[in-house]
Specification:
4-stranded antiparallel beta sheet, globular, alpha+beta
């Protein structure tokens, strides 16, 4: 029994080929954004299967790994700096009223 959603095609053994809707869902972006990224050359190009276009799952995984490698790594001090202030270190009401 397959747990793949409709539109998923298996090619060359275990390689999954996903529809544009599936790619958009996977990346949490719009279908239009998938096509825009593809047109810009930033995102992997789909393969033609008959008249439809499908993206190879492994190509999407490689793209995501590459993008993750481009993200700056936050150290513990920058994480602490980005945390919301709690009541102990928040400015007092008097300080805020005088600003």
């Amino acid at each position: 029994m397959s747990h793949e959603s409709p539109g998923t095609i298996r090619i060359a053994g275990d390689q999954l080929a996903l529809s544009v809707q599936q790619v958009a869902f996977l990346l949490d972006i719009s279908v239009r954004s998938v096509w825009r990224l593809t047109s810009s050359g930033e995102f992997p190009r789909p393969v033609a299967i008959g008249r439809s276009r499908r993206w190879l799952r492994h190509a999407i995984d490689e793209y995501l790994a590459r993008k993750a490698g481009e993200c700056p790594v936050m150290d513990s001090t920058s994480v602490a700096d980005s945390q919301p202030q709690n009541a102990e270190n928040a400015p007092s009401k008097e300080v805020m009223d005088h600003e």
